[in-house]
Automatic annotation (TrEMBL):
Pfam families: DUF2179 (PF10035), YitT_membrane (PF02588). Its main location: membrane. This is YitT family protein. It is found in: Cell membrane. It is a multi-pass membrane protein. Keywords: Cell membrane, Membrane, Transmembrane, Transmembrane helix. Residues 241-295 form the DUF2179 domain. It comes from Lysinibacillus mangiferihumi. The chain crosses the membrane at residues 29-52, 72-92, 99-117, 129-149, 170-189. One of its GO terms (cellular component) is plasma membrane. PANTHER family: UPF0750 MEMBRANE PROTEIN YITT-RELATED, UPF0750 MEMBRANE PROTEIN YQFU.
Amino acid sequence: MIGAIDLSDSQTTKVAKARQQKKNTVRKITARIVMVAIGAIIMALGLELFLVPNHIMDGGIVGVSIITSHLLSLPLGIFIFVLNLPFIFLGYKQIGKTFALSTGLGITVLSVTTIFLHNLEPFTTDTLLATVFGGMILGIGVGIVIRYGGSLDGTEILAILFNRKSPFSVGEIIMFFNVLIFTIAGFVFTWEQAMYSIIAYYIAYKMIDIVIQGMEESKSVYIISDEIEEIGQTIMDRLGRGVTFLHGEGAYTGNDKKVIFTVITRLEESKLKTIVAEIDDHAFLAIGNIAEVKGGRFKKKDIH
């Protein structure tokens, strides 16, 4: 009887866990769909209300679409959708189903939204303002989509395929492709507009980094010192961050060393340097950027 009760409890627990996992999966899928759609709409606003009316380009397949739309006098959204279709299929084959579906959704929403916005008056006709704010809005939209597992341009997929059969990196292939597009834009529009386009592209690129990494960019920290216990305790007390002691060995001296490893935000970097310098101004300190932190106990504790 006891065994039967235990089995029943175990089955109930498994069912409860399965339901919770299903709810979490539904939430994640819903969040992905909503955020990819929002990101695509934001990018469309940047294109149709700032960049395109002022003949400022984006890079990649979207840039090719802008040139083609201008030459044939047809809505931009048509070419964004048609030219990206082959890359959605390639993304499905090379990267995965989830990526392809997210990308397909994003490109569809982007295409439809640009068609609806096509006949609206631009937000500004000042080329510099359009370049700066258009690039920022574009980067925010693209960053949101990338953060939630999709893409709004097939250039990266194309670069991955070329990378497998060439000595060039993915970044180098994308750069070459965009230089070619901006050069063509110089002939189609003007060289001045092509230069503004490069500025807009750079701004968008930096905004993508900010959106993906977040404003409070995380940093990994390694500290080697003879006062390691005191430094570790002070970091926990004054920063509220957990620390991990690692065991190392000096290659030259052969002496055992304790090493502190911790993760902080960009805003806490200055305070951490001050803490270490106050206790041991000869301590070795190495700080590096981290794109994302998950799990563990990264949550900040109460500080004294």
